[in-house]
Amino acid sequence: MQNRLPLIFILVTVVIDSMGIGLILPVMPELIQEVEAADLGRAAVWGGILATIFAAMQFLCGPIVGSLSDRFGRRPVLLCSLVFMSFDYVLMALAGSIWLLVIGRIIGGITAATQATATAYVADISTPAEKSINFGKIGAAFGLGFVFGPMLGGLLAEFGTRAPFWAAAVLAGGNAIFGYFVLKETVDDSIRRKFSWRRANPLGAFLNIGRLPGLKRLMLIHFVYTIAFFVYPGVWAYFGTARFGWGPGMIGLSLGVFGICIAIVQGGMMKPVLARIGERNAVILGLGLDTLAFGLLGFLTNGWVALALIPLTALGSVAGPALQGIMSRTASDDQQGELQGLVSSIAAVATIIAPLIVTQTFFYFTSENAPFYLPGAPFLVSAILTMACILVFIQTATRRMAD
After folding, report:
1. How far apart are CA 330 and CA 214, in angstroms?
2. Angle at which helices 28-36 and 98-111 pack, to 10 degrees?
3. Which has the least CB within 10 A, 98, 149, 158, 400?
4. CA 85 to CA 206: how far, in whole Å?
5. pLDDT tens series, the chain, 403 aa
6. How does DSSP assign 94-128, residue by residue?
7. pTM for the predicted model, two decimal places
8. For the chain, which domains are there?
């Protein structure tokens, strides 16, 4: 049990952290319209800008935070991130203009290293064979947070657009206090690595980690897949409002169902799936199912059918942990923080680009100038991207087997 406690704590940390993120999703359209006096389409554009700013700061700071955790340990990085995250939510709760929301996203992006550092922590305490399975548990914990976060956010929205931010601040602060008393350090002198600014910047980290065989193509797949999957947090609230007439409560409920399904798949199905078909086939299966689901969502007009498709999309989530497990086993023990920081940074670059792609696509195909009305157009873009990921991965896997 003592050996499992660190993993249990990390999973609880990710649950609470993702609850804080999910809490604010249902109210973002109304909040932006409130502070900017904008229509839904313009609010979606501002939502994309805010998400891009957040991701830009993650890109710049992800490798730095990962390298700091390799040098000074996972514990101080996790705790400091949570404390400043709590302050960020307080700022956004008090924001009366779009520019304060911008400042809040800058601070939030800098401090949002929690999941990358938590993933490095899990890599520290996992055997090579356990990594994909434990990464799946992190995904499941994140999904559980999305079960409670959006649902609670939708309920709290009845008390105003600011209420979810106060709740997120309390969750992040409380989690920091909890971690202070129970979190143990995993970085010791045997794997401690000297901090280097040359390797801590995104380009330096990529050049260093990218020397490992086959990793560049895997990171490219991770990059494109992240862009494709961002269609859910990027436009789901706007898509549900425009296509199905959903309000904050229904949006929160739908995201909650999505989180339940993700938790079931990544928490309970990763081990048997990997045992039966292996990591390579799990990646192909997951990407294929996501391609199918995205394509169907592009043309749907019935909200109940969209809800029925959620389990299919969730089953596709086996691709992420399997791909991450393949990458983690390529790096050495003293590079896990650097690797996860770089993976976080690559994902951040993807989420810099993704909000602009999906929200601008949504805006165009719901505007008066569109050749036809199609709120689901961003999902069709994602379907094309995931299909491209399948082709690149098959080519990469074939080359690795030949080598």
Report:
1. 9
2. 140
3. 158
4. 27
5. 455 777 777 887 787 777 766 677 778 888 888 888 667 777 878 877 887 787 778 777 777 777 788 888 888 888 888 888 889 889 988 988 888 988 988 888 777 766 778 888 888 877 777 777 888 788 778 767 767 777 778 788 888 888 888 888 888 888 888 878 877 887 777 667 777 666 666 666 566 655 666 677 888 898 899 899 888 878 888 899 899 998 878 887 887 788 788 888 887 888 898 889 988 899 999 999 999 999 999 999 899 999 999 888 889 989 988 888 888 777 666 666 667 667 777 777 787 788 789 988 999 999 888 899 999 999 999 999 999 999 999 887 666 554 5
6. H--SHHHHHHHHHHHHHH--HHHHHHHHHHHHS-G
7. 0.66
8. 5-183+206-402 (1.20.1250.20)
Which residue type, as a one-letter code, is found at position 168?
A: A
For residue 152 the two structure tokens come to 């609670």
Task: Report yes or no: 319 and 286 within 8 Å, Cβ to Cβ.
Answer: yes
